Amino acid sequence: MRLFHLFLRRAGVSASAVRVPRNTSRLTVVCPREHLPAVRRQIYRDLHADGIQIAQLSVDYGQPVGMVRASITVDCPPVLRAELMSRARRLQAHPGIHEIHWGAARQHVLN
Question: How many C-beta neighbours within 10 Å does residue 71 have?
Answer without folding.
Answer: 14
